[in-house]
Amino acid sequence: MSNAALEKLTWVLIYSGLLIGCLGIFLMRRDEVLGWGVVAAGAIGAAAGVVLIWVRSRRKSDTA
């Protein structure tokens, strides 16, 4: 996977995770268990994006 593709995947995971987490907060008004499940899924996605930022910082540049 190229560095550019990794960066795109990173930001997609972070922003979609935050958006899904917000959706979970709104779902808690109707069903608390479902809401927490969706918040947890969003947090996992955002955390995966943060881990990919760390992975990207450790990789060598594509242009050599």
Which series of helices and strands comes N to C? HH
State the secondary-structure class: mainly alpha
Q: What is the number of E strands?
A: 0
End-to-end Cα distance, whole Å, is 16 Å
The Rg value, from CA coordinates, equals 15 Å
Number of domains: 1
Number of helices: 2
The pLDDT mean sits at 93
Secondary-structure topology with pairs:
Blueprint: H1 3-27, H2 32-58
Helix pairs in contact: 1-2
Explain what you see.
The radius of gyration is 15 Å and the shape is rod-shaped. Helix content is 81%, strand content 0%. The longest helix is centred in the C-terminal third of the chain and has 27 residues. The protein is mostly helical. It has one domain. Helix 1 packs antiparallel against helix 2.
Offer a few descriptive terms:
64 residues, mainly alpha
Structure summarized in a few sentences:
The chain has 64 residues and is an all-alpha fold. 81% of the residues lie in helices and 0% in strands.
